[in-house]
Design a protein that fits this description.
- The chain is an alpha/beta fold and 189 residues long.
- It is 30% helix and 15% strand.
- Strands 3-2-1-4 form a 4-stranded parallel sheet, sandwiched between helices. A two-stranded parallel ribbon has the order 5-6.
């Protein structure tokens, strides 16, 4: 059984009126759908509001299950409570973490990822630019820029990133703590 934690797992349609926003799915939800479709996975959907999470209509592969936990980054206790919930559910390790929620100051995060592997650490980690994606947040950017929509589909970004996740190890390029585009191309920084 592979345990996958996805933050921002239920981002979906926006309540903000904008062009075609009603049909947009967030990247986290795209990852949730993709991992639920894989057999023998425990998909841990970390969301701010579990009551708003709507995963019941998603197909689930044989041997796969979904666990929803509340994690709001503004809460001092949510992360601890989420760990307790997972332990109570028999989950004692995470194999894959898709840290997808929020936006980051890229230089601080890339440096932290690079340092994680510099001392022979067990962690295989890398940073991915998912591209300018057709999500509610991406559409806000497109509207601001005066373009119809972002060029990258959620399904294409998810598929590209999952290829890298599936290949990643301490001996592959993805496991060397680099910075990549969702296409697999290394970004020099």
């Amino acid at each position: 059984m592979t345990n996958v934690l996805i933050t921002g797992a239920n981002r979906g349609a926006s309540l903000v009126p904008m062009s075609d926003a009603a049909n947009l799915t967030g990247l986290g939800r795209g990852f949730t759908e993709a991992f639920l479709a894989r057999p023998n996975h425990t998909v841990i959907a970390a969301v701010r509001d579990p009551s708003a999470a709507s995963f019941s209509s998603l197909p689930v592969a044989t041997g796969t299950r979904l666990v929803v936990v509340k994690t709001d980054s503004t809460s001092a206790t949510d992360a601890f409570e989420a760990v307790k919930t997972l332990q109570d559910d028999g989950i004692t390790k995470l194999d894959i973490v898709i840290a997808n929620a929020a936006t980051n100051k890229i230089n601080e995060r890339v440096d932290a990822i690079k340092r994680a592997g510099d001392d022979g650490c067990w962690l295989t980690a890398f940073v991915v630019d998912p591209g300018f994606i057709q999500t509610d947040m991406g559409q806000v950017g497109a509207d601001f820029l005066g373009i119809e929509k972002p060029p990258v589909l959620v399904k294409d970004a998810v598929a590209g990133i999952l290829k890298m996740v599936d290949r990643a190890s301490r001996t592959t390029e993805e496991g060397t703590h680099g910075f990549f585009r969702y296409t697999g191309e290394r970004i020099m920084f």
